[in-house]
Specification:
six-stranded parallel β-sheet; Rossmann fold; alpha/beta; globular; 251 residues; 2 domains; four-stranded parallel β-sheet
Length: 251
């Protein structure tokens, strides 16, 4: 019997998604693949057939601890490798197609609660070494696309005065919302990683990490267009008229 494999990467939804090619590679070799991550990320595994979240640990399983933070973080920064190259240097997954995230159980139904045509802007992220001001990206989208033609992908309980917002209730719904948008703009965060799986060949505009944190950025994929314009003084827009607010959690 082929030994089960457990991939351990508990934190950060985007990084869990970036580990899926490793899962697929091991599954294609005949292994049962279990994934050890926080329960809040288990929805990822509704989208794939080749891995499932860890329940009880099989006695004979091999554990592949791929997690960077915190134990491997200093080595990662020192290596100057991209996140993908650093994580996929593990000997058990070196042969994986590391930039090919396959969501083979994502159906063709539209995301719930969105119109047939829309442009989706994803300006928010966490743990950004080079933080970007979401207001600047939203203002640029308003200027280029028109405020009535955009929807802002927001964390829960967020409102933006005068603009339509959308909070995905699940990873599946977020993937569908990103896939079906006419135009999609994002910073380096989970949404752009989902775009790499669902929008290949379809233009996605991307404002990534810079300087020493550039190695954190999503890998290149067909349709990805890197855009640094919001960093330049000449294109900075007046954000005084845009107000972001968080509703009470009970709302």
């Amino acid at each position: 019997m082929i030994q089960p494999k457990i991939i351990r990467y508990r934190q950060r939804l985007g990084d869990v998604l970036r580990c899926l090619p490793a899962c697929k590679y091991l599954a294609d070799q005949g292994h049962e693949v279990l994934f050890d991550c926080f329960e809040q990320y288990h929805g990822v595994f509704d989208l794939v057939s080749y891995a499932k979240p860890l329940g009880a640990t099989p006695w004979d399983a091999e554990i592949l601890d791929l997690e960077v933070w915190p134990e491997k973080y200093a080595d990662y920064r020192k290596s100057r490798k991209t996140w993908t190259d650093f994580v996929y240097s593990h000997p058990a997954i070196k042969g994986a197609d590391k930039t090919n995230i396959i969501l083979d159980r994502l159906d063709s139904e539209k995301a719930i609660g969105l119109p047939n045509k829309y442009n989706l802007i994803a300006p928010f992220g966490i743990s950004q070494g080079y933080p970007r001001n979401p207001i600047e990206l939203i203002q640029l989208a308003v200027k280029e696309l028109g405020k009535d033609n955009i929807i802002i992908l927001c964390p829960p309980n967020f409102q933006i005065q005068g603009l339509a917002v959308y909070t995905a209730p699940s990873v599946e719904q977020m993937a569908k919302a990103i896939r079906d948008a006419d135009q999609f703009w994002a910073i380096n965060s989970t949404p752009i990683i989902l775009a790499s799986a669902t929008r290949r060949g379809k233009e996605s505009r991307f404002w990534g990490q810079k300087n020493e944190w550039e190695t954190d950025n999503i890998f290149e994929f067909e349709g990805l267009y890197r855009d640094w314009e919001t960093d330049r003084k000449s294109t900075r827009l007046n954000s005084s008229h845009l107000k972001l607010s968080r509703m009470p959690s009970s709302a």
